[in-house]
Each structure stands twice: as structure tokens, then as C-alpha cells.
Design a protein that fits this description.
The chain is mainly alpha-helical. The longest helix has 25 residues. Helix 1 runs antiparallel to helix 5, helix 8 runs antiparallel to helix 9 and helix 14 runs antiparallel to helix 18. The protein contains 19 helices and no strands. It is globular and about 55 Å long. Helix content is about 75%, strand content about 0%. It folds into two domains: about 170 residues, no CATH class; about 130 residues, no CATH class.
Length: about 325
């Protein structure tokens, strides 16, 4: 099975996906609009994006392009039609509905696993805390599933103009197009991707600063460093080993998600924002893993369930499952 070439579900299944996606999106939209981490920041965008855009536009074109202009333009438009709170609600409903619907309808055979995917905390938080990233994922997914090539490239190209992590994801996407065009072997694909990961990991923040992106000069991003315990590195490293053991044909057909894994692992100790980049591509990796066979499939299932349970175990008992404002204080 090749990545993201969905099987045709029945009409009834598609209707069920629409209903479930609607319930999922309606629930997330109905959560307390200012009760979660970073919502105050998004409310500022909903009110003052015109001033923020003017500030970037006074610099240079590269400064505008590297500071998520489509996100700002949406907020400017929405501020003329909605209250700041309703602007956030529209964002949450749009992103959570489209992503959940596209994921749920992709492979009817794996419906229960697909539900598990969209309920994973790392996926859910893109519609609760990291709203801008959630919109970026939505645009990328709409483009990825689009059958009309110009529209496909348009939406995929739009994603980094909403969330900067997609500059990395799109770079991997273009790299994989080049690999396919020039028929590069799997081993060399792995070497090139690993090399690009180390290079961008070492120079990523400097490059962002040189291009005028806010992440380059932000104390928040520079202070993130390599604070991870290394458990995520081990977990996804095991996942990468399972991918590689499926064989060359699987890797050839699914090298884009494999490259996201390789990039994450190669930049884990180098690039402060690598976790955010990986979260933008995590659903692609999970969907690709549905094509694993034999014992590797069941090993991946075990990892899904372990990951799901451990993340929710840590969240239970915390206000807002760890995302509420009072949890961050």
C-alpha cells in the first residue's frame, strides 16, 4: 500500500466520517476559548494582525514570507467579520473538521486505528493549543489528497506561509520528488536526507534569523535547546527501525514519511524546533505505517497503543489535561 492513496469507502462510511468529524470539531470548538495555553496570544493575533503585518512588511519580502503571512492575512480578514473569540472558533472548527475527516475516510479497513490517531494528544493539541500549526497541517493535508496537481502544489506551498515548520516538511517533500525523478536508490536517499538533517539542525536557527523569521531571534526558541529526555528519540528510533525492516519496496513507496522520521532523529539534539516540525508530519508517518506487514504491523500497533496510553496517562488529573492556563503556571 502506498502512502495516502485512500481506498474507496462506502457512501455510508463517508457519511459516518462526516458526522464524526463534525462532532469532533464541534466539541473542540466549544472548549473555553481563553482557558488554554497560548490562547491569549492567538487572541492578540485576532485583533492586531494588521499592525503585525505592517511591521514585517516594513522590512523586506523575505521577512514577510518567513513570518507566516497567510496566517496574518486570515486574521486581518476575520477581524472585520468576527469577534476575536469567534475568529479562534472558526480556526478550530475548520482545522479539526478537515483533518479528522480526511484521516478517517482514508483507510476504512483501519477505522479504529484512525480514530486512535486523531485522539492522540500530540494531534489533539494542534486544535487546542497550537492553532496555527493545526491550520498548516490542514492546508498540507488538503493539498496532499488533492488529485488536481496545480491545486495540490498550491495548498502544500501555502502551508509554510501559515506555520513555519512546513518549510522543513515542504523541503523534504521536494527532496523526495527529486529522488523519484532521478531514481536515486533508497540507501542514497537515506544518506542525503540524514546529511540535510544534520546541516539544517546545525544552521536552522541561524538561517531563520538571517531570513528575518521571528523564530531566529526569539529567546523562547533559542532557549529550547535539547531539553528532551531522549525517550522520544528512542521511541521513534524503534519506529524507524521497523520501517526499515519492511524492505526496500516499502521504503521506496513511503520514503516521504520515512524522511520525516530520519530528519527528526538527525536533528533531535541539534534543532530546538525539531519536535514541532515532526508534529507537523506525524500523521503522515502514522498513516504510512498502516502499510506495514507481518510482525512489523503488530509491532507498530503495539507502539501506537503504548504511545497513546502513556501520553494520556501523563495528562489525566491535570487541569485541561495539561493544556489549561493554570497547568502552565
Amino acid at each position: 500500500m502506498k502512502l495516502l492513496i485512500p481506498t474507496e469507502g462506502s457512501y455510508g462510511y463517508k457519511v459516518m466520517c462526516l458526522v464524526l468529524a463534525g462532532i469532533y470539531a464541534w466539541f473542540l470548538m466549544g472548549l473555553d476559548v481563553d482557558g488554554y495555553v497560548d490562547r491569549a496570544n492567538y487572541l492578540i493575533y485576532a485583533q492586531y494582525s494588521d499592525e503585525i503585518f505592517v511591521k514585517y512588511a516594513a522590512g523586506s519580502l523575505k521577512t514577510v514570507l518567513t513570518n507566516e503571512p497567510v496566517w496574518l492575512l486570515y486574521n486581518i480578514w476575520a477581524s472585520k467579520h468576527f469577534t476575536p473569540e469567534d475568529t479562534l472558533r472558526v480556526i478550530i472548527f475548520f482545522s479539526s473538521f478537515f483533518v479528522s475527516f480526511l484521516v478517517l475516510r482514508s483507510y476504512p479497513k483501519y477505522a479504529l486505528l484512525l480514530v486512535l490517531f486523531i485522539l492522540m494528544p500530540q494531534v489533539l493539541k494542534n486544535n487546542i493549543v497550537h492553532l496555527r500549526q493545526g491550520v498548516g497541517i490542514t492546508l498540507f493535508f488538503i493539498g496532499w489528497w488533492c488529485r488536481y496537481l496545480p491545486l495540490r502544489m498550491f495548498f502544500i506551498g501555502l502551508a509554510p506561509l501559515v506555520h513555519a515548520s512546513f518549510f522543513f516538511i515542504d523541503a523534504l517533500f521536494l527532496l523526495n520528488i527529486a529522488f523519484s525523478t532521478f531514481r536515486i536508490s533508497t540507501i542514497w536517499r537515506m544518506i542525503y536526507t540524514l546529511g540535510m538533517g544534520v546541516l539544517l539542525g546545525a544552521l536552522g536557527i541561524w538561517l531563520a534569523d538571517a531570513l528575518g523569521a521571528r523564530q531566529g531571534s526569539s529567546a523562547e526558541y533559542n532557549a529550547m535547546g535539547s531539553e528532551g529526555s531522549g525517550l522520544a528519540f528512542i521511541f521513534w528510533g524503534v519506529f524507524a527501525v521497523i520501517f526499515s525492516m519492511e524492505g526496500k519496496e516499502f521504503l521506496k513507496n513511503n520514503f516521504f514519511p520515512a524522511s520525516i522520521l530520519v530528519f527528526y532523529l538527525s536533528t533531535y539534539f541539534l534543532l530546538p524546533v525539531t519536535a514541532r516540525v515532526f508534529e507537523s508530519g506525524m500523521l503522515i508517518v502514522l498513516l504510512a505505517s498502516l502499510g506495514l506487514s507481518d510482525w512489523r504491523r503488530y509491532a507498530a500497533y503495539s507502539l501506537y497503543i503504548f504511545y497513546f496510553c502513556m501520553q494520556w496517562y501523563e495528562a489525566f488529573g491535570l487541569p485541561g489535561y495539561g493544556w489549561a492556563v493554570e497547568s502552565a503556571v
